[in-house]
Amino acid sequence: MAPLPRTHSPQTWTADIGVRIRRLFWLKAIGTTVFTWLFFIGYFHMLRNPAYPVVVMPLTALDHLIPFQPYALGAYLSLWVYVGVAPGLQLSFRELVVYGLWIGALCLTGLGLFYFWPTQIPPLAIDVSGYPGFAMLQGVDAAGNACPSMHVAVAIFTAIRLDHVLREARTPVFLRLANWLWFAAIAYSTLAVKQHVVLDALAGALLGMAFALPSLRWRPEGRRQGSTLVGADIIGHH
Length: 238
Known about the structure:
Elements: H1 13-22, H2 25-48, E1 55-56, H3 61-65, H4 73-77, H5 79-82, H6 85-88, H7 93-116, E2 119-120, H8 134-140, H9 150-168, H10 173-192, H11 198-217, H12 223-236
Parallel strand pairs: 1-2
Protein backbone atom coordinates (compact mmCIF):
# COMPACT_ATOMS: atom_id res chain seq x y z
CA MET A 1 0.00 0.00 0.00
CA ALA A 2 1.44 3.36 -1.03
CA PRO A 3 2.37 5.63 1.86
CA LEU A 4 0.13 8.58 2.47
CA PRO A 5 1.53 11.92 1.33
CA ARG A 6 3.15 13.95 4.05
CA THR A 7 1.05 16.83 5.28
CA HIS A 8 1.96 19.90 7.27
CA SER A 9 -0.11 21.59 9.91
CA PRO A 10 -1.40 25.03 9.02
CA GLN A 11 1.14 27.70 9.78
CA THR A 12 0.46 29.75 12.86
CA TRP A 13 0.61 33.50 13.07
CA THR A 14 3.69 33.27 15.29
CA ALA A 15 5.52 31.31 12.61
CA ASP A 16 4.49 33.84 9.97
CA ILE A 17 5.68 36.78 12.04
CA GLY A 18 8.88 34.93 12.95
CA VAL A 19 9.77 34.38 9.31
CA ARG A 20 9.07 38.03 8.51
CA ILE A 21 11.36 39.18 11.33
CA ARG A 22 14.23 36.90 10.31
CA ARG A 23 14.11 37.63 6.59
CA LEU A 24 16.56 40.41 5.62
CA PHE A 25 16.88 41.40 9.28
CA TRP A 26 20.15 43.30 9.06
CA LEU A 27 19.22 45.03 5.83
CA LYS A 28 16.01 46.26 7.44
CA ALA A 29 17.77 47.40 10.62
CA ILE A 30 20.56 49.25 8.85
CA GLY A 31 18.30 50.61 6.11
CA THR A 32 15.79 52.04 8.61
CA THR A 33 18.61 53.70 10.58
CA VAL A 34 20.17 55.26 7.48
CA PHE A 35 16.78 56.42 6.20
CA THR A 36 16.01 58.10 9.55
CA TRP A 37 19.34 59.93 9.60
CA LEU A 38 18.88 61.18 6.03
CA PHE A 39 15.45 62.53 6.93
CA PHE A 40 16.82 64.33 9.98
CA ILE A 41 19.58 65.95 7.92
CA GLY A 42 16.96 67.55 5.68
CA TYR A 43 14.64 68.29 8.59
CA PHE A 44 17.24 70.14 10.67
CA HIS A 45 18.58 72.06 7.68
CA MET A 46 15.13 73.50 6.99
CA LEU A 47 14.45 74.03 10.67
CA ARG A 48 17.54 76.20 11.08
CA ASN A 49 17.47 77.83 7.65
CA PRO A 50 13.87 78.67 6.74
CA ALA A 51 13.52 79.99 3.20
CA TYR A 52 10.40 82.03 3.96
CA PRO A 53 8.93 83.85 6.98
CA VAL A 54 7.86 81.42 9.70
CA VAL A 55 4.12 81.22 10.41
CA VAL A 56 2.96 80.71 14.00
CA MET A 57 0.24 78.07 14.21
CA PRO A 58 -2.97 79.08 16.00
CA LEU A 59 -4.20 77.34 19.12
CA THR A 60 -7.60 75.66 19.28
CA ALA A 61 -9.89 75.12 22.23
CA LEU A 62 -8.60 71.55 22.48
CA ASP A 63 -5.02 72.80 22.78
CA HIS A 64 -6.05 74.82 25.84
CA LEU A 65 -7.73 71.75 27.37
CA ILE A 66 -4.66 69.50 27.04
CA PRO A 67 -2.17 70.30 29.83
CA PHE A 68 1.57 69.84 29.62
CA GLN A 69 2.26 66.23 30.58
CA PRO A 70 5.99 65.48 30.86
CA TYR A 71 5.42 61.75 31.39
CA ALA A 72 4.19 61.56 27.77
CA LEU A 73 7.78 62.05 26.58
CA GLY A 74 8.33 58.28 26.56
CA ALA A 75 5.46 57.76 24.13
CA TYR A 76 6.74 60.64 22.00
CA LEU A 77 10.24 59.16 21.73
CA SER A 78 8.89 55.65 21.13
CA LEU A 79 8.15 56.66 17.53
CA TRP A 80 11.76 55.85 16.67
CA VAL A 81 11.16 52.24 17.69
CA TYR A 82 7.67 52.10 16.18
CA VAL A 83 8.75 53.23 12.71
CA GLY A 84 10.99 50.18 12.39
CA VAL A 85 8.29 47.60 13.11
CA ALA A 86 6.34 47.72 9.83
CA PRO A 87 9.37 47.66 7.50
CA GLY A 88 10.84 44.98 9.75
CA LEU A 89 7.88 42.72 8.92
CA GLN A 90 8.03 43.10 5.13
CA LEU A 91 8.54 39.68 3.63
CA SER A 92 10.65 40.19 0.49
CA PHE A 93 13.34 42.54 -0.73
CA ARG A 94 10.98 43.99 -3.31
CA GLU A 95 8.27 44.66 -0.74
CA LEU A 96 10.86 46.35 1.48
CA VAL A 97 12.08 48.60 -1.34
CA VAL A 98 8.56 49.63 -2.33
CA TYR A 99 7.70 50.32 1.32
CA GLY A 100 10.76 52.55 1.49
CA LEU A 101 9.73 54.40 -1.66
CA TRP A 102 6.27 55.15 -0.29
CA ILE A 103 7.44 56.40 3.08
CA GLY A 104 10.30 58.23 1.38
CA ALA A 105 7.77 60.06 -0.80
CA LEU A 106 5.82 60.92 2.35
CA CYS A 107 8.88 62.39 4.04
CA LEU A 108 9.98 64.33 0.96
CA THR A 109 6.49 65.81 0.69
CA GLY A 110 6.65 66.87 4.33
CA LEU A 111 10.06 68.49 3.81
CA GLY A 112 8.73 70.26 0.73
CA LEU A 113 5.86 71.69 2.76
CA PHE A 114 8.31 72.86 5.43
CA TYR A 115 10.38 74.59 2.74
CA PHE A 116 7.53 76.54 1.17
CA TRP A 117 5.54 77.07 4.39
CA PRO A 118 7.74 77.01 7.52
CA THR A 119 5.70 76.98 10.71
CA GLN A 120 6.18 76.87 14.46
CA ILE A 121 3.99 76.57 17.53
CA PRO A 122 3.35 79.58 19.79
CA PRO A 123 5.87 80.22 22.59
CA LEU A 124 5.22 78.00 25.60
CA ALA A 125 3.79 79.60 28.70
CA ILE A 126 5.90 77.30 30.91
CA ASP A 127 9.58 76.47 31.15
CA VAL A 128 9.93 72.80 30.25
CA SER A 129 13.73 72.68 30.38
CA GLY A 130 13.67 71.66 34.04
CA TYR A 131 11.96 68.37 33.27
CA PRO A 132 14.16 65.32 32.56
CA GLY A 133 14.80 64.92 28.85
CA PHE A 134 13.12 68.14 27.75
CA ALA A 135 16.28 70.24 27.58
CA MET A 136 17.66 67.72 25.10
CA LEU A 137 14.35 67.63 23.22
CA GLN A 138 14.19 71.41 22.89
CA GLY A 139 17.77 71.52 21.67
CA VAL A 140 17.43 68.71 19.15
CA ASP A 141 13.78 68.91 18.07
CA ALA A 142 12.82 72.55 18.51
CA ALA A 143 9.15 73.35 18.06
CA GLY A 144 9.50 74.41 14.42
CA ASN A 145 8.57 72.61 11.20
CA ALA A 146 5.31 72.20 13.04
CA CYS A 147 2.61 71.70 10.41
CA PRO A 148 2.04 69.03 9.30
CA SER A 149 3.36 67.01 12.21
CA MET A 150 5.70 64.48 10.63
CA HIS A 151 5.65 62.64 13.95
CA VAL A 152 1.96 61.93 13.42
CA ALA A 153 2.27 61.46 9.64
CA VAL A 154 4.94 58.77 9.92
CA ALA A 155 3.17 57.16 12.89
CA ILE A 156 -0.16 56.78 11.07
CA PHE A 157 1.59 55.51 7.94
CA THR A 158 3.27 52.87 10.12
CA ALA A 159 0.02 52.03 11.92
CA ILE A 160 -1.89 51.43 8.68
CA ARG A 161 0.86 49.33 7.10
CA LEU A 162 1.45 47.36 10.30
CA ASP A 163 -2.27 46.66 10.67
CA HIS A 164 -2.24 45.27 7.13
CA VAL A 165 0.64 42.90 7.95
CA LEU A 166 -1.02 41.74 11.16
CA ARG A 167 -4.25 40.99 9.27
CA GLU A 168 -2.33 39.07 6.62
CA ALA A 169 -0.62 37.00 9.31
CA ARG A 170 -4.00 36.43 11.03
CA THR A 171 -2.68 37.58 14.39
CA PRO A 172 -5.00 37.85 17.40
CA VAL A 173 -7.12 40.98 17.58
CA PHE A 174 -5.30 42.21 20.68
CA LEU A 175 -2.11 42.75 18.64
CA ARG A 176 -3.94 44.88 16.09
CA LEU A 177 -5.53 46.81 18.94
CA ALA A 178 -2.13 47.29 20.56
CA ASN A 179 -0.82 48.68 17.28
CA TRP A 180 -3.53 51.35 17.16
CA LEU A 181 -3.13 52.15 20.85
CA TRP A 182 0.60 52.69 20.29
CA PHE A 183 -0.17 55.04 17.41
CA ALA A 184 -2.74 56.90 19.52
CA ALA A 185 -0.23 57.30 22.35
CA ILE A 186 2.36 58.76 19.97
CA ALA A 187 -0.14 61.13 18.36
CA TYR A 188 -1.46 62.33 21.72
CA SER A 189 2.06 62.75 23.09
CA THR A 190 2.88 65.34 20.42
CA LEU A 191 0.21 67.54 22.02
CA ALA A 192 0.93 66.57 25.62
CA VAL A 193 4.64 67.44 25.44
CA LYS A 194 3.75 70.64 23.56
CA GLN A 195 5.78 69.92 20.45
CA HIS A 196 2.70 70.36 18.25
CA VAL A 197 -0.77 71.85 18.29
CA VAL A 198 -3.98 70.13 17.24
CA LEU A 199 -3.93 71.52 13.69
CA ASP A 200 -0.41 70.13 13.22
CA ALA A 201 -1.53 66.67 14.31
CA LEU A 202 -4.62 66.69 12.09
CA ALA A 203 -2.61 67.79 9.07
CA GLY A 204 -0.01 65.12 9.80
CA ALA A 205 -2.67 62.41 10.02
CA LEU A 206 -4.15 63.45 6.66
CA LEU A 207 -0.71 63.54 5.04
CA GLY A 208 0.20 60.10 6.38
CA MET A 209 -3.08 58.55 5.20
CA ALA A 210 -2.66 60.16 1.77
CA PHE A 211 0.38 57.94 1.25
CA ALA A 212 -0.44 54.89 3.39
CA LEU A 213 -3.79 54.04 1.81
CA PRO A 214 -2.59 54.13 -1.83
CA SER A 215 0.47 52.11 -0.81
CA LEU A 216 -1.83 49.22 0.14
CA ARG A 217 -3.33 49.18 -3.35
CA TRP A 218 -0.04 49.13 -5.22
CA ARG A 219 2.16 46.44 -3.78
CA PRO A 220 4.75 44.32 -5.56
CA GLU A 221 3.55 40.92 -4.31
CA GLY A 222 0.19 39.54 -3.27
CA ARG A 223 -0.61 37.49 -0.22
CA ARG A 224 -0.57 34.24 -2.19
CA GLN A 225 3.10 34.52 -3.07
CA GLY A 226 3.93 35.78 0.42
CA SER A 227 2.20 32.77 1.97
CA THR A 228 4.18 30.43 -0.29
CA LEU A 229 7.46 31.99 0.81
CA VAL A 230 6.51 31.84 4.47
CA GLY A 231 5.29 28.26 4.16
CA ALA A 232 8.48 27.20 2.41
CA ASP A 233 10.58 28.81 5.12
CA ILE A 234 8.61 27.08 7.87
CA ILE A 235 8.84 23.67 6.15
CA GLY A 236 12.55 24.19 5.66
CA HIS A 237 13.03 24.47 9.42
CA HIS A 238 11.30 21.12 10.15
